Amino acid sequence: MTRPFVIAVDGPAASGKGTIASRLASHYGLPFLDTGLLYRAVGLDVLTGGGDLGDPVAAEAAARALDAARVAEDAALTTGEAGEAASRVAGHPGVRAALLDLQQAFARQPAGAVLDGRDIGTVIAPGAPAKLFVTATPETRARRRWLQLSGRGDTITYEAMLADIQRRDERDAGRGSAPMVQADDAVLLDTTDMDIESAFDAARRIVEAARVRHGFLA
Predict the structure, then answer these.
(1) pTM for this predicted structure
(2) Is 169 within 8 Å of 14 (Cβ atoms)?
(3) d(Cα 62, Cα 51) in Å, to the nearest integer?
(4) pLDDT per residue over 154-194, tens digit each?
(5) Which end of the chain offers a freer environment for a tag, N or C, measured as fewer CB atoms within 10 Å?
(6) Does 27 score more than 60 pLDDT?
(7) Which is more confidently placed, 79 or 120?
(8) Nearest Cα residue to 119 out of 145, 93, 144
(9) Is 125 within any annotated ligand binding site?
(10) 51 labelled as ligand-binding?
(11) Strand ranges, E, within 44-185
């Protein structure tokens, strides 16, 4: 097989897309990139440098200086603060442009790759053979993220988490540059009433159907 098999996994925060994408990568033996970590790293770099997340010049500068090799091992990127920072800097067109080449280069690996984010199937890898849009109700996603952060010792109420999820959804879907939308050819996977095993099995079946449809046979 000479064509890369790319799996694009998009969706809102706490929908389960990251866990699903990671497990798909492991299942198919493909490299995995959580593109949200790139935006989280940019946001934290702006804050660490004393900058303003609303400043497009500062945010783009941070994106262009980003060392992508560090993001997978930086525990600070999993905090709620990092998630909020990522959502804010992701709205700057210059930031998205600065990270575009990095993400597309990752998707061009010979065997293929799995990428998850907000605009993988629409902007980063629009030609990906397999596309999923993973979602769940805001209430379910807020509860998941609240339990996750509370388990780490973060002090946040469920109500505050729900408000944060709703605010980020509105920002991600409403931004002018690469808004979060379901690609026309992406398969919708609603994980509201699923545990992770059920969600992964459903995702795997979607990918298997795409493999057959596009001639990627085992």
Answers:
(1) 0.89
(2) no
(3) 10
(4) 888 999 999 999 998 998 888 887 889 999 999 999 999 99
(5) C
(6) yes
(7) 120
(8) 93
(9) no
(10) no
(11) 112-117, 130-135
